[in-house]
Every structure is written in C-alpha cells, then in structure tokens.
Amino acid sequence: GQLDTTCHAFVGETVVLPCTTTPPGELTLARSRLYWQIDRKIVHFFQNGKDSLEDQDKTFHGRTSLFLDQMKHGNLSLKISNVQLHDEAEYFCIYKQTENHQTKKSKIKLNVSAPSRIEEPPTPSGQSQVCSGSPTDVPCLAVLLLSFLLPVLLGLWHL
Q: Are 57 and 37 in contact (CB under 8 A)?
C-alpha cells in the first residue's frame, strides 16, 4: 500500500492521525468495523457502534480515542495522547462495512521526535497536533515557532 500521509509529533504531545471515507456520507456504524493497527498490533478497534478494546496493544491502553460524534460523517481519525518514541510507526486505518463487504484502507506514517533541549513555552492544554495529507502544508513546528517569534520580533522593532 502507498503512504497516504505523514504526521509528526513530539514526545508527550497529542496527535491526530487523519482518516476519512470518501465520498463522505452517513455511515452505518452499527454495521461496520474500524481497525487502527500497526502490522498485526491492534491500536484501536471499533465495531457494532462502539469501542472494542479487549485486544488493544497494552502500550496504547488509555491513550487512544476516536471522534465518535463525527464518525457517521466519515471522520475515522485516531487521536493518540501522550505520544511516546515507540509510537513511531506506519499505522493502518481499515474500515469495513459488514453488509456490502466494502473495505477502505489508508496508511499513515507517524514520526516522533524527542523534545528539544531548548526551553519552549508550554503548549496550551488541550491543543493537539493535527496532520493532513497535503505535502504543501507548513509543518506544525514551523507554525508554532512563527507564532512565538513574530510577536517578540515585532516588540523589539518598536523599541
């Protein structure tokens, strides 16, 4: 399978791995399954309209969630909180509809970096890194640095 997108996160952050169905429409969640996995490791499993985490890999326990309110509209993205170095991998988002045996699959690569030694202001609580499939997007880190440095530079310019 070809890579759909690549996401970047730092250790300790929350990241959203994107996965959507096309064309968007009302999904019948009660008759569908959603697997998020790395090779044969279950990262998150959803079936019959609810999470089914009995077979979830223990390293992800309590750190993954889906956007339940948006799933019926095609948003199958996975949120991973408190990202760890060992979370770096190629993730597969596999959506299966049981009534018509239709399967949709996408692959998302997650790159994880250790936090830099430079002291940076803490991220506001609840803020997540969200990745998208467009290679022209400015990386999250660059946007964060600009949003921090620009007011500082403008402040010095007025001195």
A: no
* 156 CB-side CA count, 13 A: 4
pLDDT by residue, tens only, the chain of 159 residues: 567 899 999 999 999 999 998 665 677 888 899 999 999 899 999 998 999 999 999 999 999 999 999 998 889 999 999 999 999 999 999 999 877 778 889 999 999 999 776 555 555 555 555 665 543 333 444 333 444 444 444 444 444
Helix (H, G, I), strand (E, B) or coil at 70: helix
Rounded (to 5) percent helix, strand, coil in the chain? 20, 35, 45
Written as six digits, the tokens of 114 are 């250790």
Domains and CATH numbers, the chain: 5-113 (2.60.40.10)
